[in-house]
Amino acid sequence: VQLVESGGGLVQPGGSLRLSCAASGFTFSSAVMYWYRQAPGKERELVAFISSSSANINYANSVKGRFTISRDNRKNVVDLQMNNLKPEDTAVYYCYVRRFDSWGQGTQVTVSS
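Structure (tokenized):
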């Protein structure tokens, strides 16, 4: 199982970023996929998850209305579109598949002026 995140970077408050997680080594189309984040000095927290068919999606209250999770089962990719970013969104963002308890290496998102 391999998960590789990309798309992080430095962005000003109010800006946008799109994170992507490329998955391999398992049947992606049947797996629920998660995005987590961990800010310095804080515990890792769930940001969003999406069911295998995209029928069920859920977000942390702190990102509702600003973030959108999506997936492409043909490409084995799960994305996280982040709009109206705030300094408190600064964290390392991780892709996760619970079925295999497998994490990506993470991608840093920094929101700062």
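The mean pLDDT is 97. The radius of gyration is 13 Å.
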